[in-house]
Amino acid sequence: MRAARFQDVSTFSRVSPSKCCQTNARRRRRRERGSRLRDSDNAIEATNDANEDGDDGAFVQQPQVAPSTSASGENEMTIVFVAEDELYSIFVNANDQKQKIRPHRLTTATGECFSPLISKCGTFVVFAAIEYYAMELFLVPTEGGAVKQITYMGADFIRPLSFSDDGSELFFASSSQQQTPDETDVYTLRLDYKNQEKKSDMPIAMHPKKLNLGPATAFEVNVDGTLALFGRNTQATRPWRKYGGGASGDIWIAKNSCPNPQGKDGKTYTDFKRVDALDDFFTFVSQPKWLDNSAMVFLAESKQGERGLWSFSVADNAQNELSRQPTLLVKDANIQSYSIEPSGKCTYASRCGHLYTADLKKGSDSIQQVAFKWTGPRKQLEQRYVTSEHYVQDWDIDPAGRFMTTIVRGEVNSFGLWDGPALKYAPIKPRKDEKEENSEDPMGSALCAKIMRESNAQARSRFARFTYDAERLVIVSDQTGEDDIEVHWEDNRRMPKRLNIPPQTLGRVEEMVLSPEAPLACVVNHRAELLVIDINTGETKLADKSLEDRGMYQCSWSPCGNWIAYTFRRRDAEVIKILDVRTGATQTVTKPILGDSCASWDPDGRYLFFLSARELQPQYDALLQGMSFPHLETVYCLRLRKNVRDPHLKEIRPVGDESYTESLALGDADLDDDKNENDEEDGKDKKEEGEEEKEEDKGMKSKSKERRDKDVNGDDEDDEEEEEEEEEEDALHDKPPNPIEIDFDGIAERAVALPLPLGRYSDLVAIRHDRFMVVKYPTISSGEVNLTSSEDDLDQERGGSLISFDVRDLSAQVLVSSGVTDVHVSMNKKIMVLEKSEKGYTSELTAYKAGSKPEDEDSDDLLYRTRKSGTISLDRVRVLVRPKDEWAQMLLEIWRRVRDDLFIDPLSREDFDWKEALRTAVSTLPRINTRAEFAVVVSDMLSELGFSHAHVSIGDDGRAELDRDHQPGFLGANFSEWDDSLGGYEIQSIVKGDPWSSQNSGSLYRASADIQVGDVLGAINRVRLTPEKTPGMLLYETAGREVLLSVLKKDSGDLVATRTRALSQELDPRYRDCINKRTEYVHKTSDDKVGYLHLSDMERLGFSQFWRSYQTESINQRVLIIDLRGNGGGNISALLLQTLTQRALAMDVPRRGSPLIYPPRSPLSVGMVALVDENTGSDAELAAHAFQKLGIGSVVGERTWGGLLAVSRSDVLNDGSVLSMPTQNVCLQDDDENEHNNLTNSVENTGVIPDVEVKRAPGNMNEVDEQLDAAIREALRLIGENSSSSSNFFGKAVPAAKEQEVSMSNTSPWAFKTFAKFPPTLAEELKKKVKALEKTSDDSVDENDKKTTDTKEKKKKKK
């Protein structure tokens, strides 16, 4: 519906399943196993039920065998496994396999169940399940019963690993309290039993304790508790077939440092040593387990290609050496997951979902397939109806703007805009007598057609368009196994037909536009070929072809139907080309600067409007002091003939005259001197026709107004009268339009820019009377960028404003202010339909008169959907989904898209058979009962490619009715275990984060009371905490809400209550604390000579992180450590390398202040260090490779992931899943001594080998980071070797900029008074003077009285 422009940036992002789906990754290609595998010709099942030949009808995963008891026989075992996303148990007797047994269902979870683990006593099973917004651990009795939740950590990833030797502790891996996105750690959960002797009752789980061992996929203690096994990257599946990257699996062994533990802390294991000897024998190892005190079992593939279960022994005094050669116990290339028991009993599940048992002591000869009768509910296979919400994949309107079509989950529906039922168009079923024409089948089309018929796959329709006469609907469907075109009549009495265009000719349809005047269709396929097809006969003509990927799009028919304008991608830029449908000739009509696109014809045939990027208006960047081009495009107008008026010359017309004629378009004078009188008469006729058309429009307006008034009043229109009026209206316009004449001589020079500001535009649509509409996207921030919300700010997701522009007076008007993501106009240019999307889904469709401003309606009144509001109700569309039939179609579509779009043709490869991979996947479909199981099959098929970046996300998981809307809350703190003496949980650490951000700071840090480490949390929301009621349990359902905490102050002993708001996630504040801690450590250790920054990805978040820290960390000649550990990739390595490879040319030295480097922010350091690990992937690997090849610096750490291919696009499947695959190879310019100028991809499937290799041993990752210490040492080495050159340059400038520092030590104290009263007002001064005068007069009176008294006294004395 819409193609992107100037956004074809190839991404090198590591595409890996989410942690909750890691077990659904790659496995080896299926090999022939004699009688166990069916012949490929019979591999397609036509039924979903179990057959009579032993097919159990279930897809078994992750089996676990229960420990042997005294009552169990030698050949008896209890097995718990995952099927239909639930747990089942089954009792197996190896001696009696004739009678099929029935499994017993243990759980009914709202989410998918993972990784069952049976307790040492065999009475209960611990498993992981998705509940609410997180993944938690649960337990259930082995014989069945109530399910009990035992963790409340709110983590995205959790897996049970093993039990302690006495069964009192559970070890599990979790991403709780993670500081980086890829971080997990081992936790221990103490289990308290009421009956300590029998341990038959369900245990009570305490608060979990973190062991700080680092990321782990396996941790197990041997039988006597003396040794511990630690596995990293040893998950059940590899990324892809023949994987050879850095994440191939490591096994470490450690001794118990406390053989006789005292107290509740239990045993501790330190001094882990890696089993390096395995590297000499195997390409990968996975799922290591203890068999006894010294023997280990693991799944591996040798360098000779033997795959199965192997064992080896560890010597007592030499844990890092193998005492003997590895032994192959069970040879089976299809083992997916397994479980063993100390007696040697083994059970495993194959990649095809079968369950097997074996005896490790007897070897491969003891393998037996477990046959059982499957009686699972198959709940997700039930057919169900879905609404159009979130599943509208395509839509269109009819030529008159009365009806519209939608495609929902691959089904076509048509209905009136506001009234009428939703009519369905079923794909045409192939005839039984149809046979494959090409027996060789080089493209696999015959195989796809066979699978579609025999599996009863639900065909998918991707395009549905009305013909010019509104009598037919042209649909693109894959009912035949490949894309083909079907023509359906609106009159259902006529039979639809399929055009049967060969797939070699038609290809996969990417765009289809129908002619407004003839039964012709313009089609662009995946090979960038432009086809013109006669929908009556199926005749197909190849009109044009581009050599670029997605090199042709945005086709637009001229109103007369003679021309097609389209965007053609060349290697340098995109241009607009025009095809003459009558002759097949093509002509380039624009001369682009950066690119032209989105052509739209003026209905009157005078102009061709298009978008172009020609004017560059740079703007200053607020941070980088550079320039960028946030706005590039604007609308241009191409005059199709020389005598057409320049749109900048406005029309001269009287006041109130809204008519428009060709003569007025030419201006005041005739531009053609040879024009004769007949032409003038023709001009008059056209003017009269224009006036008549105006009157007709006025009449139609009055009629439509009467209809609306009647509809509002509730009066129904008579159907027959409406049909008669429509027939009369059609009769008026039954004449064919005048053919548009195009003067190609100098046409590219007649393009002029219209007065619209530069911006980001799309969906340019021309309408009548020299007007057009266009969607303009705002340049705004998408919000806060962090680890949990850092998606790209896509225009197609946020929408823009709809603008109408009138060429006659060069004026623009905003019709809709925001939210518009797509706009369609009917063929008669009278009706427009707007689409508003939310998070990538169609949320609303509204219809209005083309070019008119919609009336403001109350958005809260969702029931007010009428002609007046314009809102189209999509609730009428109900689609019946048959999950298994839909999965079969999706599997075929994935296979075809990989065949068509992979950077290399998979059918031409000799090392594997892509058709056989499809047959194997289809043969597994009968046992698939859930969407998660189907994801395993798809992942297995894609892993056969042997390349990275091939992945399918899960769309509709079929569990929507079971989802619960509960979300855990977090305080941003770590708590100890329950302390009886304190009566609560002691606060061990408080997360700070960014204090200014409410989302990226710790909740407890922002609390109103002064909470300190060592204080004790006693209650939450007045609910008292207990050993059973942990903080995580009471914080569920508090995310984003205020909570009241009761905290006991450790220093004063006071009990305080404080309010705070719980966080919905705490990854971002913990990540910020981790980076700040690492930065301080690097500065302190290196004496402030080394800087540090971490990039979590190579996308918007990584770009933000780089520029947040680069300026401060690279100042003062610091050698910069760029930490790429855990970086999954993206597409910004080129932007970062531009800065890192820039060298300083000069320094601007001011009289005062620090010297300024030129070019700004050029690194002055003597080198850099890149820190990598096995999780560094894709574009981050390209950056690490550049460090070595461009001489930027050294690479320290572990060998990287090994996946460097480009993903340029993604495809949405029928249920909303997204398929991504490598569509571009990446060739590296390696400067080898023996092979100069050799273009290779040495990173793919190998990884970047660091200059200084450092393996991370399990241990306290928060206290000791061996790789970071090695990076600091390497940085200091670079400083010591190369400091002379840059220091001399820097030293010349710094002294000149320094001024003599003023000594402040001997200065005398200041005598400033820091407080003074306000000065008196005028009234106060007058009052003061009056009082002074009164006092003065009183004093004078007293003086006179005193003198008089003294005189009298003197007189008395004289007498």
UniProtKB/TrEMBL annotation:
Positions with biased composition (Basic and acidic residues): 1332-1353
Bias (Acidic residues) ranges: 669-682, 714-731
Gene3D superfamilies (UniProt xref): 2-enoyl-CoA Hydratase, Chain A, domain 1, 2.30.42.10, 3.30.750.44, Tricorn protease N-terminal domain, YVTN repeat-like/Quinoprotein amine dehydrogenase
InterPro entries: ClpP/crotonase-like_dom_sf (IPR029045), PDZ_sf (IPR036034), Tail-specific_protease (IPR005151), Tricorn_C1 (IPR028204), Tricorn_PDZ (IPR029414), Tricorn_protease (IPR012393), WD40/YVTN_repeat-like_dom_sf (IPR015943)
Start and end residues of each stretch annotated as Disordered: 17-72, 660-742, 1332-1359
Domain Tail specific protease span(s) in chain numbering: 1052-1255
Keyword terms: Cytoplasm, Hydrolase, Protease, Serine protease
Family membership: Belongs to the peptidase S41B family.
Protein name as annotated: Protease
Source organism: Bathycoccus prasinos
